[in-house]
Backbone:
């Protein structure tokens, strides 16, 4: 059976999320709502859905998402029972009415292929629920490493994960959960295949109340971006081709150049190069640093 986990904090769009669960054409799922000590109680709203779908609500007395979003996800997952698959649905995102039905329609093939990560098509919506992007479709079966290098978007809400993988591996605790979901896709799939269900869609809300929809915490986002690529290069480099490693190195270098105040980033990148005996890459990195410093100095003179 499928568990839908909702780490709850924001009330503003929560009713739309619940409405999308109530109208699912297949009701073979259970919802677990973990209230992260929100100042906006959803109790009155939840009364409206008591007989519309199966759910459990639990209020945590201590806010955790403010310091570690991934730990909030994990304690909400711990509320679930013996379900084999889980989705972690944002409290502002919306399921298309056939998402659960489409999941079960493909489940036999998913399990025969030994796949641990399922992905649905997505479309961005704004505060008013209006579409603000095209629909994002994916190859039916795609290697998760290939997905990392394919230019596209991603959100935690659009995935279903084999629960045993989630419990065994867990989420990496990057600041704001930024890139924690991407790494989860890679690790939960064992850096192997993802199964895409393109016949059902999840709407991802982009608003000034969401982490991805505002420009706050840019420093923390930069840090998480760096930490993500550093983890891949320092812990998982054997899973990538030489070409892919060069691309990862380019991305982590760019992350450092966006915030050169972090001198420890410079040393971490240097260590990666020396460990891999990649002096050519290191020379290119140093040249990029010098060019960037020169541009900055010229701007100061002006």
Residues:
């Amino acid at each position: 059976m499928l568990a839908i986990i909702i780490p709850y904090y924001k009330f503003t769009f929560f009713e739309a999320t619940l409405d999308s669960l109530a109208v699912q054409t297949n009701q073979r799922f259970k919802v677990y709502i973990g209230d992260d000590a929100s100042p906006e109680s959803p109790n009155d709203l939840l009364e409206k859905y008591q007989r519309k779908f199966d759910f459990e609500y639990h209020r945590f007395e201590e806010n955790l998402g403010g310091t570690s979003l991934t730990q909030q996800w994990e304690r909400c997952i711990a509320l679930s029972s013996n379900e084999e698959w889980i989705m972690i649905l944002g409290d502002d995102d919306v399921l298309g009415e056939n998402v659960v039905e489409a999941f079960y329609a493909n489940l036999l093939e998913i399990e025969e292929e030994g796949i641990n990560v399922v992905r649905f098509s997505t479309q961005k919506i704004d505060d008013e629920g209006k579409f603000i992007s095209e629909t994002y479709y994916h190859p039916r079966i795609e290697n998760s490493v290939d997905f990392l290098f394919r230019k596209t978007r991603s959100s935690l809400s659009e995935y279903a994960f084999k629960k045993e993988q989630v419990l065994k591996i867990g989420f990496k605790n990057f600041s704001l959960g930024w890139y924690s979901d991407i790494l989860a896709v890679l690790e939960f799939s064992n850096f192997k295949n993802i199964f895409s269900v393109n016949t059902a869609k999840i709407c991802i809300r982009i608003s000034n109340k969401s982490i991805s929809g505002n420009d706050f915490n840019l420093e923390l986002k930069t840090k998480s971006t760096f930490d993500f690529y550093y983890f891949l290069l320092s812990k998982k480099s054997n899973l990538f081709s030489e070409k892919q490693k060069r691309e990862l190195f380019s991305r982590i270098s760019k992350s450092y150049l966006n915030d050169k105040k972090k001198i420890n980033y410079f040393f971490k990148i240097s260590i990666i190069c020396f460990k891999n005996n990649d002096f050519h890459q290191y020379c290119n990195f140093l040249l990029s640093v010098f060019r960037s410093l020169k541009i900055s100095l010229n701007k100061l003179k002006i």
Notes: The chain has a mean pLDDT of 91.
